[in-house]
Task: structure prediction
Amino acid sequence: MDLIIAVLGLVALIVGGISCQGVYAPPTVRIIHSGHACNVEEERHTERVYTIREGETLELTCLVTGHPRPQIRWTKTAGSVSDRFQDSSVFNDTLHIAKIQRTQGGRYYCKAENGLGSPAIKSIRVDVYYLDNPVITVHQSIGEAKEQFYYERTVFLRCVANSNPPVRYSWHRGREVLTQGSDKGVEIYEPFFTQGETKILKLKNLRPQDYANYSCIASVRNVCGIPDRSVIFGLTNKTASPSIKLLVEDPIVVNPGQTVSLVCITTGGEPPPILTWVSSNDSLPQRSVVKGGTLTLPAITSDEAGVYSCVASNNVGNPAKKSTTIVVRALKKGRFWITPDPYHNDDNIQIGREVKISCQVEATPPEELTFSWLKNGRALRSSERMVITQTDPDISPGTTNLDIIDLKFTDFGTYTCVAALKGGGIPEISIDVNISSTTVPPSLTVPRGKSPLVAREGSTVELECLVSGKPKPIHPVGRGADKEAPMLMAAMQMESYDGVLRIVNVSREMTGIIRCQTSQYNGFNVKPREAVVELIVQYPPTVEPVHMEVRQGLGRPVVMTCRVLRAHPSRVLRFEWLLSNRLLHAGAFDPHKDETEYTIRSLNREGWGEYTCNVINEAGAGKCTFQVTGKAYPPEFYYDTYSPLWQYRPRVYGFKLQWTQMNPGAVDRIVAYRLGIRQVGLQRWWEQEIPVGDSIGKGELMTHNLTELIKPESYEVRLTPITRFGEGDSTVRIITYSAPINPHLREFHCSFEEEPICMFTQDKNDDFDWTRHSAATRDTKYTPNTGPSADHTGSKQGFYMYIETSRPRKEGDQARLVSPFFNIAPKNPYGITNPPAYCFGFFYHMYGKHIGKLNAFLKQKGQMTLETPVWSLSGNQGDRWKQAKVSIHPTSSFQVVLEGIRGPGIEGDIAIDDITLEEGECRDPPPNISANALSTSSHIWLLCTTLVLTLLEGQR
Result:
């Protein structure tokens, strides 16, 4: 007897060990839809395709399991254009897109991860269907031969419509349907290079009857309920492509601020053309006004100059286009430079040598630019000693030169270059250049003590170059080619008139060589003078961690480490550790180490708080912060609780709240939980404490039943762990009431008499659907020699479900009918150790020489694919209804699935009727079934029973 007890204990231990492995689990994911889908199907057995009409609502839900609760992320790739949720992701279990557009089609991914195992990823391809209004364009060809002995005129009508899926076109002339071959003068074809995109109607050698109204009908065969669209074009003997005329000059030259009106008129075209204006600047100016064929540009600016085109279109031939250019007169960017005698290697101006003064201005239009020169305010004309030249006006920017040959003392003075536009209206630009004995080339130097320049990060620095010379040039200042320095300022260049560059909030990346140069304009046309300034930016140590939370229980050691990553100067002088501004430890930093450490051998209550480590160099201090606390980690709500909601009074429901504790051993023992609950939308919280007796293990599932919840309200639940430290981190979840939809097993019976078919659904992943039918409403063209003539009770008015195996069905196609979920109550939160039995029964009719197969499956919660059927039958069973019964033993909530498989021909209709599900084993299963009813759990219990009986026999 002791041996029996030991064996039974061993069996219980094995079963208990299997059941109590904890609830932490990696994520699983499944995508379901609840939006306005036209169809969801499997494509090549590897891809789920969700078809939806443009403008409808896309709603995809990511159903996840796993503990801790997985984080969900929706992303999108593929699709036309780069539409990726506006470059973001959706972190929610439901993806909702209202009024979906065609550009939002593509593949959507749902990714779930909770830190356990690999992330779970599922995807679905969304195909957006649409059909735009078709457009007819007309093209003509005229051929002449044999010196006008005959004249041929052929017209092509082309119909185009954007669509998904591909569109089908049909042509009508009046009420007559046109097809290829129906009229010798008509040819209908699709161009090879645009196959499927358009259909062309060719009218050869126009006849009187060809002048008519032609309609093109575009159709996508009513998929997604998209109706056909049509367009009509009236072809007459006056039909002609558009022609237009611009009543303006080209180009149009105006001054800034003027109002410009462009007038475009049609001179031909039938139907009457539509006029539009376009600009070379991508879009018309915001202040522009278009009225008919007139474009008005009020108070025009230089930015609005460009090419403006009038386009006329009437879908006949090619659009007509006429353009004009608007030129807005302007003068800008006046510059000068002085060039010493190029024949002598000397940058100075000297008596007896040549000097050239150059003046440059940007002008619009360039051909109107004129220059004049003044000396000391008096007009200067070109002579043998004062040679004035000007560049070709077609070369922009315009430049004028004044060459002074054999410079004399009397030539010293102020020379003025005056730029103007012919006709006036634009202010002149004057540039003064002084030529004297004091006019000398520039030189650049860096003041003493200004290089190298040392600054602290974040401060303001001034880099300075001293310039001498006359005229005083502008200083472009920028980074030099310092290969070892960061390139943040490599492309930066700034101009300074006083040689000082002021940098606000200097950063460490700016360390390096800064070059100062004289400019190539507004000064001497000589090799630029250059000086360099070395900038050294010091910054305090960069350390890690910047902030770190340390959770620990009383009496345990705590070690905190602050590490130096980089600093300038790199030599760290000292460190100091503080607790709430109270100095704990300080000292010199070890030059051979890059970190400092502080240890608490035994944590006490006074040791809780914020610890700061300051690491200090000449530029300042870097700070590591450690928050030492005994606060408990948050609980982790368990969302995979089996059947958590129940009802025990008409207006009240209950909810089984389950959770685990994150890292329970990290801090002191949790002594209780504070539970807060409030109705969604209200402010008041109701709180109570849930005591905890023993220490909580990692992954241990805890349960608390919430009662007296009012239907159909939702509630917000807050759970907070409590230790000797006090309250820890809270976790919040929402509890939502949902009315039960599962029928009670004892009274479940379905005869398919009502349209909802007892909440059975069609599997979305099969090849075709079951059909609800009755003999009284059956089509007279039904396939003979197969299928029932009445329901199982003999009534022609009664309904049943059947599979129609006529075309386009093919051999092996599957249709699956799925029941609603049936719940069974587990005796403990870890599952069911003694699975109950249910009797699943139904009537079937399998008559016809091409009968395929009928299968019944048991599908349990979390099961992704169908396994071995619990019942299966194939072949012709005669023209009569028969009953099938099979015992099933589910271990969790479950569904039953009936699968009909099409045989080799059309005489293979299979029907089912009167489905029942009862508690207990089947008492008298019919003799004509092939059943595989024993589940895995049943085999385990049979094995255990056999083992016990064997041991009993051995005792005898």
